[in-house]
Amino acid sequence: MSIRVFLVDGYAAMRTLLGILLETQPGFVVVGEASDEESAAGAISYCQPDIIVIDRAPSMHHNLDILQRLRMLCPSARMILLTFALDMDHEEVRQALDLGVLGFVPKEKVGDELIEAIRTVSAGECYVSRKLLEYGLELPPLK
C-alpha cells in the first residue's frame, strides 16, 4: 500500500520538485498540493493524506495556526515540517510537536532526507535531520 502524501509550499517550483522526487519512489503517491492555507484546507479534507509535508512559513505563529487547522481537518495525517535549523527555538519545536509534527527536515536536504523522513513518520516515529541537530535545533523532551 502506498503512502499518500500532500505537499504545502508557497513555491510552485518546490512543489513540482518534491512531487517528482516522491513519484519516482516506490510506495509513494502525491495525492495533492497547495500553495497556501486556504487551498490546503479544502484539498486535505478531501484527499485525506497519510503525510502532510509543509514548508515552514516565515512567521512561526502563522505556521502554528496552519498546523492546527490541518490537524483538525485531517487528524490521522502525520506532518513533516521543512525548515531551517535556526528558524525555530525550543518552544516553537514543542508547539509543532504538540500539533502533530513528527518530522523536521532542512529545506536544503529535501532530496537526501525527505524519503527517509516520510517512511519514518509514516511508521509513527519522530524524524529529525542530523543537520538540523548539528545547527542547533533542539528537541524538547517528548511527553
CATH fold-level topology? Rossmann fold
Unreliable runs: none
CATH class: Alpha Beta
Bin the helical content: 40-55%
What is the overall pLDDT average? 83
What's the CATH architecture name? 3-Layer(aba) Sandwich
Largest sheet: 6 strands, parallel
Structural class: alpha/beta
In whole angstroms, the N-to-C terminal distance is 31 Å
What shape does the CA trace take? globular
- What's the helix-strand series? EHEHEHEHEHEH
Question: What name goes with the CATH superfamily?
Answer: Response regulator
Biggest β-sheet: strands ordered side by side in the sheet = 2-1-3-4-5-6
Number of domains: 1
From the alpha carbons, calculate the radius of gyration and give it in angstroms: 14 Å
| Oligomeric state of the chains in view | single chain
Beta strands, count: 6
Walk me through the structure.
This protein has 143 residues and is of the alpha/beta class. Helix content is 45%, strand content 22%. The chain has helices spanning 12-23, 37-47, 60-73, 90-98, 110-122, 130-134; strands at residues 3-8, 28-34, 51-55, 78-83, 101-106, 127-128. Helix 2 (37-47) runs parallel beside helix 3 (60-73). The radius of gyration is 14 Å and the shape is globular.
Topology (SSEs and partners):
Elements: E1 3-8, H1 12-23, E2 28-34, H2 37-47, E3 51-55, H3 60-73, E4 78-83, H4 90-98, E5 101-106, H5 110-122, E6 127-128, H6 130-134
Parallel strand pairs: 1-2, 1-3, 3-4, 4-5, 5-6
Helix pairs in contact: 2-3
